[in-house]
Write a structure and sequence with these properties.
Helix content is about 35%, strand content about 20%. The protein has helices at about 15-25, 45-55, 80-85, 105-115, 130-140, 145, 170-175, 175-180, 195, 205-210, 215-225, 230-235, 245-250, 300-310, and strands at about 5-10, 30-35, 65, 125, 150-155, 190, 200, 240, 255-265, 275-280, 290-295. The chain has a 9-stranded mixed beta sheet with strand order 3-2-1-4-5-6-11-9-10, sandwiched between helices. Bound molecules: beta-D-ribofuranose and calcium ion.
């Protein structure tokens, strides 16, 4: 079978870097046609530079990187240096990228690429605030019916939120964009924190990753060592989630995820719960089931596959 074509929309971020490396290490299954960046974990100038650093680390400077929206559709940008460090990729010493950014804006790139592709071919994976995709849908509504699927890291329900008691970071930063996408009619698969908290990355796994000896594996482990410092009060073990990589894992091995089709709405009005992904898990509303909600991962095959794929990179 031909590899599945994906656009990765991202705000790197150490866990975004894992998701990208995992995808680029899986060329038989995934064809990363382009990467688009958004302001999120850190401002856009840094997420864009970081995306270039990651494609170069993977030995894939041929993957075009397009910078997108610097801020959410309605609200002001909120960043997360407290998790990812000042650069967004603290922990690894990656050289300044030599590859330039593409001149075309990410939103124009998305619209053009999706409209030019055969219907149902392209999947957009969002690993940060969903601003670029929502803007693309606003600019050219016909992209909705041309997409195969949107697979996102964001949201959560049973675990509450990680940015507020109710909201996960990516959805909280741009709830209006998430609302636009979830409400659009496009098939959506959501890897929220209910799912990502079930695949915790251990120090032992990072030792094994580093021991494979490839530069990509060693730098990924360095990134993770920094990233693991956050969350001590929450996880009570040295293991940590590697959120965005769960999107790549789903594309490669959906059978290792527990999932359920549900109606999901995004709160954009309530001061206390704005950005909450309200999941109708028990189908009590009778609303259209617009989202495939990922609830759990089988961690052993997930980490086995990720180690194999990242260590296959140079
Ligand atoms: C999400 O927020 C960001 O900090 C991570 O990169 C991930 O996309 C987790 O809530
Ligand atoms: Ca991210």
């Amino acid at each position: 079978m031909a590899p599945r074509k994906i656009i990765i929309d991202t705000d790197p971020g150490q866990d975004d870097a894992f998701a990208i490396l995992f995808a680029l290490g899986s060329p038989d299954e995934l064809d990363v046609v382009g990467i688009t960046t958004v302001g999120g974990n850190v401002p856009l100038a840094l997420t864009s530079k970081n995306a270039l650093k990651v494609v170069e680390l993977a030995g894939r400077p041929d993957v075009p990187v397009h910078a997108g929206c610097p801020a959410p559709m309605v609200r002001k940008l909120i960043t997360a240096e407290y998790v990812h460090g000042e650069t967004g990729l603290d922990g690894a010493d990656l050289p300044e990228p030599v590859t330039p950014l593409q001149s075309e804006h990410a939103v124009n790139y998305m619209v053009r690429t999706i409209m030019d592709a055969p219907e149902g071919e392209l999947t957009v994976c969002t690993l940060g605030p969903m601003t670029n995709l929502a803007m693309a849908m606003t600019m050219e509504p016909r992209i909705v019916s041309r997409l195969r699927e949107v697979v996102l890291m964001g949201g959560g329900f049973f675990q509450g939120g990680n940015a507020t008691p109710a909201a996960e970071f990516n959805i909280f930063v741009d709830p209006h964009a998430a609302h636009k996408v979830f409400d659009s009619g496009v098939p959506v698969t959501m890897a929220g924190i209910d799912c990502t908290y079930t695949a915790l990355m251990t120090p032992e796994w990072l030792d094994r990753l580093r021991a494979t000896g490839s530069r990509a594996a060693i730098e990924a482990a360095n990134l993770a060592d920094f990233y693991r410092q956050y969350g001590t009060h929450k996880f009570e073990t040295p293991a940590r989630p590697i959120h965005d990589a769960c999107v790549t894992g789903y594309l490669l091995a959906p059978q290792i995820y527990e999932q359920r089709q549900c109606a999901v709405t995004i709160d954009i009005v309530s001061p206390e719960t704005i950005g909450m992904t309200v999941v109708d898990w028990w189908h009590v509303t009778g609303r259209r089931k617009n989202c495939n909600v990922l609830r759990r991962i089988d961690p052993a095959p997930f980490f086995k596959l990720m180690l194999e794929r990242i260590s296959a990179l140079p």
